[in-house]
Amino acid sequence: MMTMSKIKFRVNDPKKRELPYAPERSYKSYRSELMEDFQGRCGYCNSYFGIIKKDYHIDHFVPQRIILKSRTHNHLLNDYKNLVLSCPTCNGSKSGKWPSEDPDKSIVSEQGFVDPSDQSYSDMFFRDNNGRIHPNESNLANYIHKELKLYLRKHQIVWSIENVISILKSKELNDENEMLTLLLSLLTEHFEIDKFN
Ligand SMILES: [Zn+2]
């Protein structure tokens, strides 16, 4: 049986700065800080924004639906600490999902969400050689993997394309033929192009 090699889910963890709550600022005004702190990557699936052309979204970790119902946590709508840089796919998968009606309860009996700016989020997942995201053994990791649809092939493809681009960029190529040969070998390695005809 082939053993699956485990590749670290993300190379760098996001480094989210501490910003005091500023009531006059809308969450939409934090885009550049989020881009920088999440290093241009989706907090949930780690896809690099350079690969996905659509604008990245600003996700509320505690969903707006829960915040508005709570009446006591309205600041979370525009509080930097509740914001996550997110690709459109993950933002859509997470939408209003939350395991309780309480903004402070992000996990209930091993179901719920871990803030992706927390380092522990990195340890919940790994990638296989093909870039597919897998959960670790815990029930919580399995829950997040399922609810955020981290199993989608799209996440795997984006990861592979990023790899191909970084390998291409790291080589000093003398002519076009050389580049095409390398590109073809990279595509063969990362995609199933032998199934083309
Ligand atoms: Zn994502």
UniProtKB/TrEMBL annotation:
Highest taxon of source: Bacteria
Native species: Paenibacillus silvestris
Pfam families associated with the record: HNH
Domain HNH nuclease: 29-92
Keywords: Endonuclease, Hydrolase, Nuclease
Species classification: Bacteria, Bacillati, Bacillota, Bacilli, Bacillales
Keyword presence, Nucleotide-binding: no
SMART domains for this protein: HNHc
Transmembrane regions listed in the UniProt entry: none
Gene3D superfamilies: 1.10.30.50
CDD domains in UniProt: HNHc
Keyword hit for Nuclease: yes
The protein's name: HNH endonuclease
GO molecular function: endonuclease activity; nucleic acid binding; zinc ion binding
